Every structure is written in structure tokens, then in C-alpha cells.
Amino acid sequence: MNDAANAPDPTEAEVSEQKAVRLEKRQRLIDSGAEAYPVGVAITTSIPAVRAKYPSLEVDETTGDVVGLAGRIVHLRNTGKLCFASLQAGDGQRIQVMVSLAEVGEDVLAQWKELVDLGDHLFVSGEIISSRRGELSVMVKEWKIAAKAVLPLPNLHKDLSDEQRVRSRYLDLIVREQARFTVRARAKVNASLRATFAAHEYLEVETPMLQTMHGGASARPFVTHSNAFDTELYLRIAPELFLKRAVVGGIERAFEINRNFRNEGADSTHSPEFAMVEAYQAYGDYNQMADLTQELVQNAALAVADSMLVNLVDGTEYDLGGDWARISMYDSLNDAAGLSITPQTPADELKKFTDAVDIEITQPTHGKYVEELWEHYVKPGLDRPTFVMDFPVDTSPLVRDHRSIEGVVEKWDLYIRGFELATGYSELVDPVIQRERFVEQAQLASQGDVEAMRLDEDFIRALEHGMPPSGGIGVGVDRLLMAITGLGIRETILFPLVK
Q1: CB 3.0–4.6 Å: which of 142, 170, 188, 294 could bond 125 by disulfide?
Q2: What are the residue boundaries of the Aminoacyl-transfer RNA synthetases class-II family profile domain, all occurrences included (predicted)?
Q3: Is the model's pLDDT at 3 over the cut of 60?
Q4: Residues with Cβ < 8 Å from 313, sequence gap 6 or more?
Q5: CA-based nearest residue to 285, from 199, 390, 198
Q6: pTM of the complete model
């Protein structure tokens, strides 16, 4: 590691001093009749375009190609009659610029040395050449500040702390290739999701983020107040109930890439604000939705990595290819724990099993006991992509009863690299049963379960007009990036919420 990497971070006093010097330079620019923040500059090309056009030049080769381009100064070296700088484009590609006394004259060279700083956005016009060291360069004939930076950049030879990365993502994007890659990977994932849905004739729709009643998932909501309507509103925890209304209305294949908000904990896989894609298909079921989900994830991996064998940030590889296993929640639990639990096993008996492994259940029901036991015994051993099928009925109030197994519903959760990535249902479309499930949830809420759903009369009314048998899925977009890259959730979100 070089001396620059070992250099201590500047103190607040040093940063303040540098800011004062740069503000003085800003004023000198303005006083000279120049602009510190011009409305535009005469760009004719970009740094990536120049690098693509001239992948290799001979040492000291000239091209006769005069260009105008701009970038942020990330390296600066003033050496007498010849000054050097490196300009960086938004994608991280760089090009050297050379400011020579012979080309620009004594006054312009002196202004360069006096007014230009690391971090400034700079416009240059000049000929594309190769330097004596064979480096692709612009021999500057004219330069202009495009935006004066009054605060210095962090040490470009030293890694930012995790806290700096999330609190000052703009700096992270400037200095770190992985941050820039992740933003582009996320854009490719979203484009891939849309392309896959389009290939299956889905329509993209938008549903409310402010709702008069929260629903669609078991979660604690954020609460706000509308002055215009003088009513309490909730930030949505899921778009499910509105997307189902769309299916009732005849949009038989609907999806939404959406922002959801859940007033719960934050850790390496959870964020209070997160992105999901939800989709519903009339005349589909949870098996068809599992097929679609596998296709969505594998296509996203291809879009980002050009392979289903993805390289994770820890240096390991992970294979998303092939057909993924589908296992029963009850069968896999019994195999792992050596038990004989069925959907009819009483909650009191299940409590004995959770007590034996020190699992505490705050709202004890059969389903919550089973799911907590499954997470204890089975989840840690899941690495390969796996659909966990057929959940207890009392934890899945929006899901259809299993067509052949009493006491469970047609629901799966998809686990990749040990964390839950997606969930899928054969949707409950019977308004009578749905009302009964909502009433059961309301009873749980009255007993103190803050995550229980409320009775949504308008949604029931929509179902009473007839919703066709349907399948539905919800896929975490942030977690999809985690699966493909190996990053934590705060790294996959461009500007995560931090305390």
C-alpha cells in the first residue's frame, strides 16, 4: 500500500481551510469574467467514446482529431511547463489531459495552476494523442471550469468506511468501481424484469403508495396524516390488494415494480424502505408462478453477469442455473428435526418443540410455531436455490387452501443463498373465505399483533364481483441484487435510509 493510502483523513479544520481556499478561487474565477458554474460547455464527445474509438495508439502518435469533452479531475500534477490531469467520466473511465506552455501560453498555464483543483468538473478542447508513455491523452488547446468543487474529494487511494459509503453515496460513486457497477446492475435487473414480463404479455401498472388501510402482507406500517382529507394514511407495505383489484377489472396479467415501507427492523437483509416486483396472473397457480420466478431471476443474472454462474463480491461463485428444487415445509422440517409434525399437530405440542430449542413465540399459533421451527432446523442448510412449498393456513390469510392437503395453503417461499428472495401463491379469490380470514386477522390484531391485517371491505367488495383463479408472486428487487452480487441490502439500495 502506498503512502497516500496510509495518509490520515483530513481533520474538520483542514477541510474547512481547503474549502476557504477553493471558495476564494471560485470568486477569482467570477471576478476574471469566467464562470465557476457555466450553463453548459461545448462537448463534442465523451471519455468512454474516445476510449472506444482509440483502443490503442503508438507512443507519441497524433490523430488530428480535435474533441471537446468533460469530466471530474481525479488526478492532478503540475510540473513546470507541462501539467497533467486525469478526467473521470460518470462510469469511471478516465483520460489524461496535458496542458502545455507551448500550446496554451504562459497566462493560461498560470491560471490553470492557480485555479484548478482535484474534484473540479473540467471541460477541455484539444487533439487526441498518445503521450510519451503511450497513454491516451488530450493535448489541451482550451480549458474551462465546468463546475468548481469547493469541498475536497476523499483520499482516492484509501477505501471509504462502510458508514461513509451509505451516508455519502455520491462520494462512493465517484471513488469506487463496485458502487458504480451496482447502480448499473440494478438498472439492468429492472430492464430484464420488464422484458421478461413483456414476453409473457404482462402489463405494468401503478398502485397507490398512500393507502387508507394497510394490507397485502403481515407487517407494521408507517402512519401519516393527510391534511387535505383530514384522515390517517399508511405508506403501503405491499401493492397486493390493489393489483388484485386490477385483475378483477380484467387486467389479467399485471405487474408493478414498487417501493414498499415497513416500520420494522433493519439488518443485512431488511430495510424499512425497499423495492419489490409483484405480479398476478389470471388462470395461473403457484406452480406456474414458480416457473415464472425462476425465469425472472435467471434472466436477471444473464443481464448482469452474462452467465448464470455469478461472481460474488467475496470472490466465490454461485450457480443460479438449472431447475430449482421444490421441497415441502412440513416434510423438510420433519426430516431435519426427526419429528412427525402435521398440519393438525396442536399448538400446545408444538410449543414443547420450540421450548426445547429456546425459540420464543410472541403470538402463538400453529403456523408460527411451524415456521419458526422450520427456520431453526432447515433454513441454515439451504444454499442452492430452493422453493419451500405449502405453508400453514393461519400465517397466510391471502392464499388459497391446498387442493389436496388439509390445513395448508398453496404458497411457496424462494430461498437463495440462505435468504428469502420471493414468495408465490395460488391466490384466495373466494370472498366468503377471504372475509373469514380477515376476521381472524382482526382478532389477532385486537390481541396485540401489530403485524396482523385489517378487514378491508372495499377489497372484499371487489372479490365479490368475481376474481378468476390466479397466481401471484412478490420478488424483492434489492434482494435479487444481493443474490446476483453477494452484497448486503444497504449496498444494493442507492440511497438507503440511515439513522
Answers
A1: 142
A2: 186-496
A3: no
A4: 178, 485, 486, 487
A5: 390
A6: 0.90
At residue 5, the pLDDT reads: 59
Is there a binding annotation on residue 420? yes
The residue whose grid cell reads 441484487 is: 481
Q: Is 158 exposed, middle or buried (0-12, 13-18, 19+ CB in 10 A)?
A: middle
Q: Is the dihedral of CA 352, 357, 362, 366 positive or negative?
A: negative
Cβ neighbours of residue 84 under 8 Å, at least 6 residues apart?
Answer: 75, 76, 77, 78, 96, 97, 98, 99
* Sequence-distant (≥ 6) Cβ neighbours of residue 496 within 8 angstroms: 166, 271, 273, 489, 490
Percent of the chain with pLDDT strictly greater than 70: 98
Summarised one tens digit per residue, pLDDT across range 84-124 is 999 999 999 999 999 999 999 999 999 999 999 999 999 99
Give Dmax (Cα) for the chain.
Answer: 90
Beta-bridge partner residues of 280: 254, 472
| Residue 302 in grid coordinates | 444473464
Model confidence over 14-56: pLDDT tens digits? 888 999 999 999 999 999 999 999 999 999 999 999 999 999 9
Asked whether residue 335 is marked as a ligand-binding residue, the answer is no
Write down the pLDDT at residue 4.
56
H or E, element range at 155? none
Give the up-direction half-sphere exposure of residue 486: CA atoms within 13 A in the CB hemisphere.
Answer: 14
Q: Is the pLDDT of residue 2 over 70?
A: no
Amino acid at 196: T
CA 459, CA 72: separation in Å to the nearest integer? Answer: 53
